[in-house]
Amino acid sequence: MAETAYLSAVNYLFVIVTFLFACSEVIAAKSPNVLIIVPDDCTFNDLPLYGGKNARTPNIDRLAAQGLVFNRAYLAEAMCQPCRSELFTGRYPMSNGCSWNHSSSRPGVKSMVHHLGDLGYRVGITGKVHVKPESVYPFTKVEGFDASCVRNPTRMHSLSGISKFMSADKEQGFCLVVALVEPHVPWVMGDASKYPPRKIKLPPNIADTVITREAFSRYLAEITYMDGQVGDVLEALAQSGQADNTLVLFTSEQGSQFPGCKWTNWDTGIHTALIARWPGVVAEGERTDAMVQYADVLPTLIDAAGGKVDGKQIDGTSFLPVLRGQKQTHRRFVYGLHNNLPEGPAYPVRTVSDGKFRYLRNLRPQEMYIEKHLMGWTGKGSLNNPYWATWVRESTNNSETYKLVKRYMQRPAEQLYHTAEDPYEMSNLAGSAAYESTRKRLAAELDRWMKQQGDPGAAQDTKEALAAAREGKHLYVPPGK
């Protein structure tokens, strides 16, 4: 009798354990919610997480301690609209059609709204949208964060909209993009007094002038202000009760509006911050050298949601195995391009990097590079940056400032940098016999990618091509797309 009771108890315990194990498997297999936090114009290595010497970002640092930090994450084009189009479609600029700022993706292209919507997700966005057309990006608009990156001052944010969106239906997954407008110019938010200009440690690609230091102080204050918003958003997620089943991605977008960052293909333009937190799946407090690109984010989300990635519709590939700790590598190369219209006269640039070396090809090296906003354009809607004039003025008596002005405005046909050892890419190795094999290898890979993308090179950065793209009649498209 006692033996029978014992066996019954063992069997009962076995059933309970099996049930609990099965439940844990179901929970683990459940598709995660997705929260993507995107600041605006924040150079990745101005963040302490990537070696920044000035800014204080306790909330971003805390998020990094809870997740995986990507040391080598990139985007293809260092302008708001093209990089967001890449992020949302999983396609490079040529492929989705948005190859210039203030242009448009090709009609018929699908974004995360379609791909994740087909998998049962609610897909929303709050804050700055800056992508079009609506048919490609039919996000559910969520109130709470300012949509204008040029308002002075930025409207105060409210968490009620995103809290409602995250909690609306706990049986249905959500993907929410929180697109912040800091630290985009004008730099007016935050407490600049916390960053005395004289105590700032300027990066080597930024000229040291009084007005530049004042501007950099205000930029740093906006980074800290943005960090506070990140903390508020994460707290709203925690209050929703959804944090344990939410994949959080934080990325800093392209570089800031200082010369050599935004609107360039240098590393400080297209290298971006990326943090991934997913409790129980992504290791905490780890870093990875696996190379990823914005085009890889959407296929990763599709993969995590249990969907199938269609390589004919998406250029990127899933790095879910990296998130799960199953792989330490992802890409061999990352790619970039720059079309300067309508930001200034045509000045097309293309680039490729293997994570250690960067190769750039300036397709019109005989021309001067001009960016009308950064260099003091005073037309309608201008965000005039007075520091550039001080660079030009002081280059008369300061040889280092002169080199920075020349570096920005006059560029050779080819540039090669050992980015791993020269992170601000100040020493051009193109032409050096010691690095000729590296130059040839990367140049050949860039040729291959441009051909794959149907990229005509200099002919892409023309008024005719831009005008056609704005009307949805793109002149150049990748083969098979």
Describe this structure in words.
The protein has 481 residues and is α/β, with parallel strands linked by helices. The protein has two domains: 32-331, 3-Layer(aba) Sandwich (Alkaline Phosphatase, subunit A); 337-470, no CATH class. Helices cover 32% and strands 13% of the residues. It has 14 helices and 15 strands. The chain has helices at 2-29, 58-65, 80-89, 93-96, 112-117, 160-167, 210-240, 267-270, 297-304, 320-323, 387-394, 399-409, 436-452, 463-470; strands spanning 33-38, 68-70, 73-74, 122-127, 140-141, 174-179, 246-251, 271-272, 274-277, 286-288, 292-293, 334-338, 349-353, 358-362, 414-417. An eight-stranded mixed β-sheet has the order 5-4-6-1-7-9-2-10. It has a four-stranded antiparallel β-sheet with strand order 12-13-14-15, covered by helices on one side. The protein has a three-stranded mixed β-sheet with strand order 8-3-11. A hairpin with a 4-residue loop joins strand 13 (349-353) and strand 14 (358-362). Helix 7 runs antiparallel to helix 11 (387-394). The longest helix is centred in the middle third of the chain and has 31 residues, at 210-240. The radius of gyration is 24 Å and the shape is globular.
Domain count, please report it: 2
State the CATH topology of the largest domain: Alkaline Phosphatase, subunit A
Helix content: 25-40%
How many helical elements? 14
Q: Please report the distance between the alpha carbons of the first and last residues.
A: 74 Å
CATH architecture of the largest domain: 3-Layer(aba) Sandwich
Poorly predicted runs are 9-29
Based on Cα principal axes, name the global outline: globular
Overall strand count: 15
Return the average pLDDT rounded to an integer. 93
How much is the radius of gyration in Å?
Answer: 24 Å
CATH level 4 superfamily of the largest domain: Alkaline Phosphatase, subunit A
Class by alpha and beta content: alpha/beta
Order of helical and strand elements: HEHEEHHHEEHEHEHEEEEHHEEEHHEHH
Please describe the biggest sheet, giving its number of strands, its sense, and whether it closes into a barrel: 8 strands, mixed
